[in-house]
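Follow-up to my earlier ticket, as requested here are the two runs.
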Amino acid sequence: MNLEQTAQSFEQALSACWEKLQLQARMLTGNRQEAEDLVQEALTKAYGAWPGFRGEASFVTWVQRIMANVYKDYCKRNARLRQVSLEEKWVELEHAERSLALGDDAIQRLELQDLRRSLEQALARLPEIYRNLIILKYIKSLSYEELAQAFECSIESVRCRLYRARLEMRKLLVDLV
């Protein structure tokens, strides 16, 4: 395959999964600019390895694995854990707050604000893997299959990790209340 054919076949494979890659990068980084950088670096590596792609996994799974490795390397280089922005994740809770704001029930409004604050604090204290799992499952409504693919593990592993994440979240919420 010549260089032009390689580029065309890579572009065709990429067009089918571009949005999925963008979503995963955004969930990993919590920041649009960093997500774009992550996708760009992962695609650069994937393009370089494209001639050796054997098709044992789907193209999107292959690129997601590359992107996860690029992100892990990035975190190691910067020696810090990434935190997903919580402010933009609580759409449903914000909607409920706005609904209550229209009424006169100040006590309910304060309780809801306290709940939100407690949830944000507990979520921020979770280990990164648990935090990302909870956000992807309960805020972004990803299926177990999508989570397994994104985290490169079995569905059973996702269920087990999610169970542990919920237990940890409960402990943190009890401490905060």
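Run two:
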Amino acid sequence: MDLLIEKYKGIHPGIILERELKKRSLKKGPFAIQLHEYPQTLNEITKGRRRLTPALALKIDQQLQLTEGTMLVLQAYHDIKKEKGKINTEHQPDLSIIRKIIFWDTDFTKIDWQRQYKAVIQRVFERGNEAEKAEIIRYYGKEKIEIITGKTKITNDLPPVLPNLNLR
């Protein structure tokens, strides 16, 4: 298990614990009782809905004969991944460029620009103007846009402006 920490970085340790228990044919309830923990607590952890405390992590390491600190290190990596996700979601495209009317059926202030990227990209490329498309390309990158839209050539260049022809 120690050699696989790199493989499991960022995954909730409860999910890894559940996998380990299945591999060893151990049931969660009796295992929790052996640890002097409530089965509900262990169940919440294995579902990824609850953090692993240092005390419980050490008990699990000892009971499963893992290197001391293995589960705690996995919890730390999971916490780091969650924090990085929070930092990344704080970033968003320049909203002064994107018109709210494009997202007429959505609360514009509640758009999660990271999680809802597919819908955002599709909506802007269906209804947006060239400046909005350029901002979305800048924010998400050409590769991601090409995958979502199915277009093979996406450019950051705005089209040339046609001269104003007075045809009276």
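The only thing I checked on run two: The radius of gyration is 24 Å. Let me know what else you need.
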